[in-house]
Amino acid sequence: MSSKAIEKISPLNQPLVEVKDLVMRFPLHKDWIRAVDKVSFHIDRGEVLSLVGESGSGKTTIGRLLLRILEPYRGTMSVANHDITHIRGKNLVSYRRMAQMIFQDPFASLNPVKTVESHLLFPVKKHRGGHIQQINAVVDELLTRVGLSPQETRRKYPHELSGGQRQRLAIARALAVEPAFLVADEPISMLDVSIRAGVLKLMNELKREFQLSFLYITHDLASARYFGDRIMVLYAGKVMESAMSRELVRNPWHPYTKLLLAATPGGYHVESLPEKVNEPPDLSESRRGCPFAPRCLYSTRECFDNMPETQEISPGHFIACYHPQIPSES
Ligand SMILES: Nc1ncnc2c1ncn2[C@@H]1O[C@H](COP(=O)(O)OP(=O)(O)OP(=O)(O)O)[C@@H](O)[C@H]1O
Ligand SMILES: [Mg+2]
Description:
- By secondary structure, the chain is of the alpha/beta class.
- Helices cover about 35% and strands about 25% of the residues.
């Protein structure tokens, strides 16, 4: 589907991605674990949703489900009004032109025996067609757009590029098929600290220029806030809290979000919170209640018995908690 067609179906600031009650389970020791448990959210066209949470909370699994690298166990996913929950074959190939992934490790996602230009020539030719001169011109345009010099880089191999250049190439390759939606899974965490900001800035510019929607997966609340219009906090496969980025960082209500913010270097003025125990959450299918309850200072009997419903605590600010804690003055 062309960008023009997507524009018609999903106007700017209207939902492009809609996920409802998504569940994913994996087998473990003759049993199942629930990596993603009834997760619902939307991403508007031209919007970045940052997905934060600690290791193992299910962030990558959600990204892989959305790109249909994985098939969900339950729930529904639609992109540009197309149900993609179980798409296969030709429909899946066509969907992959609309949705692309940027991985954490650019080296692993590139082919070591292919030059920079051959990473781009094939998708450009397949997607846009045209004469070789036109294709070459698009390749140059893409490289220039992501901050790589075509003359200097076209004939290089991935190992001859720096980490930041490799990630820029991976971004150019994703853009080659003119997607509407990108999942960026920790795209800067493996890069040198000094070049992270540049790559994040590039993604921000691309978002604005092409009205791209992103699911931005990260551990890092500072970059989640910088790049994300909204932030969604995940714990043990469940959404704990979501709000506009600034609102979530300034006025966190959920005890887990407060803990996450207190543990984040970077001057978030949230009191440092103790926790009851610090053990990995129970992901078993038979678990009940809120997965954060064993760690939560405010948990009561009902937290262990039932998962709280999501409530809108202020406009656009949602939490799933029986004991929301008034945000401290920041
Ligand atoms: N293919 C798989 N088979 C079995 N279990 C899996 C598989 N993929 C993920 N899991 C499990 O699902 C849970 C969520 O994993 P996931 O990789 O989505 O977490 P994450 O939030 O991306 O973590 P990280 O921050 O470390 O990347 C983990 O317990 C993980 O072990
Ligand atoms: Mg991950």
